[in-house]
């Protein structure tokens, strides 16, 4: 969409997270993924807080379909803990890309989907490469290897 203001005065930039928390998972959901995806991380998903709605949005590309969950701030702790436990969470400021820029996403798996979600122009094919690109573009590790287990312990909640 060319403008941030939708007919009726609704600002679209207020309807999406200002920061995305990318969750890099070292465990493969299926045995063949472990062999197909070399490196430390096997999957990546994302979640972020929408201030206007006081809700958390979770995006998780899976083999069957993409899953999108919207959870109220008052009950998000359980899902955030589930996503963060045993994984590495990287905070990415949104937007990375320019609103008018063209940013095609090639491929149909988690890595290009998440790169496109946060506006990162990326040629990464594997989660490890996306992880390195996120750090190179200002991403901050806030939950290394599940230590602490709660993303909100790092001031991630509603900030």
Determine Rg (CA atoms, Å). Answer: 15 Å
Mean pLDDT: 82
- What oligomerization state is this entry in? single chain
Q: Element order, helices and strands?
A: EHEEEHEHHE
| Class by alpha and beta content | alpha+beta
Distance between the termini: 26 Å
Helix content: 10-25%
Unreliable spans are 143-159
The geometry reads as: globular
Q: Report the β-strand fraction as a percent range.
A: 15-25%
Question: What is the topology, as strand order, of the major beta sheet?
Answer: 4-3-2-1-5-6
In total, how many domains does the architecture comprise? 1
Count of DSSP E strands?
6
Please outline the major beta sheet.
6 strands, antiparallel
Number of helices, counting only DSSP H or I runs of 4 residues or more: 4
Can you describe what's shown?
There is one protein chain. Strands 4-3-2-1-5-6 form a 6-stranded antiparallel beta sheet, with helices on both faces. The two termini are 26 Å apart. It contains 4 helices and 6 strands, in the order βαβββαβααβ. Helix content is 20%, strand content 25%. The chain has one domain. With 159 residues, it is α+β, with helices and mostly antiparallel strands. It is globular, with a radius of gyration of 15 Å.
